[in-house]
Specification:
Elements: H1 8-22, E1 26-28, H2 29-36, H3 40-49, E2 55-57, E3 60-64, H4 65-86
Antiparallel strand pairs: 1-3, 2-3
Length: about 90
């Protein structure tokens, strides 16, 4: 049986590739604020209410890019439906 050996740089490259393929992109609250174009109070209100799914690690919030995209698409659907209703 052949033993596999990796040096540190090969291991790091393999780990980075694994992360990119398998783990979600995670944003900070500040990054999500920039993407959404909202202020700090609005962002934390969305997080605390659960309207923007996120996890709290220690004192910091982390938002998956997938959750942020879903929230944006849901909001757009609601706006389109409201516009259609009002027309």
């Amino acid at each position: 049986m052949e033993e596999l050996e990796m040096d540190h740089s090969e291991y790091k490259e393999a780990l980075d590739a694994y992360k990119q393929e398998r783990l979600p992109v995670v944003l900070t609250a500040a990054e999500a604020m920039d993407i959404l174009g909202v202020g700090k109070n609005t962002m934390y209100r969305l997080l605390k209410s659960g309207k923007l799914p996120a996890v709290r690690i220690g004192r910091r919030w982390r938002i998956s890019l997938n959750s942020l995209e879903k929230t944006i698409h849901q909001k757009r659907r609601i706006e389109v439906q409201s516009h259609d209703y009002l027309s």
